[in-house]
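Q: Hi! Curious about what Ig-like domain-containing protein looks like structurally. Here's the sequence.
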Amino acid sequence: MVKSPVSLDWFQRVPQPSSLVFLIHLLLFLQPRESNSEEVKVIGPGESILANVGEEVEFPCHLSPYRDAEHMEILWFRSQASDVVHLYQDRRELPGRQMAQFQNRTTLIKDEILDGAVILQLQDVLPADQGSYGCRFLSRDDSFSGEAVWELEVAGMGSDPHISLEGFKKGGIQLRCSSSGWYPKPQAQWRGHLGQCLPPEFEAITQDARGLFSLETSVVVQGGAHSNVSCSIQNPVLLQKKEFVVQIA
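A: Let's find out. The predicted structure is below.
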């Protein structure tokens, strides 16, 4: 029986089990990994929120996927992080860091903070509150930082229009219509009994210290020509209006 020579080089080329394990671990280690800051996102209320003047608006923010945020810093801000709307840090709120216009007007709801979900309530919305907002989460070890931004739009319906009889002018009857408390700047329209538009003789719009608009407008109608005359004032954002109708002889 002839024996074939066996080369020792063949055994040397066969990877040993320990070498295979080392090679697998090395390949896994060299694979690119995503950091926590890429895996976790901050979800805000959306691109835009509409709030009514004098009412309350909520700014909900949460982490996705959900994770404990009790020991994180959570900041609500205006257009930049230095404009502090509300700050939660070291498991407590810091009202002294707020901008003056937001002091005593915010409430933090943190019932679900262990799941990474919080809500900031802003009371008594004003026209000056309109603009850009954001919320930012920052972990204690700086391993995660993320934020979400959105726009707050403010609108307000004013008082019911009031029509007064000013007297006779230019062979007709002069009527004056007034209303206040609107935001943004309202639009007024006079109409006759057939629904036709009546050109105003005069119109003035003023803005008070709170940013709300008042409007006065007048029209001259010929006596007997228009049995019913209406004054309507519309909010251009809400597309809602208030109207007053007066009957003249």
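A: A fun detail: Residues 17-30 form the longest helix (14 residues).
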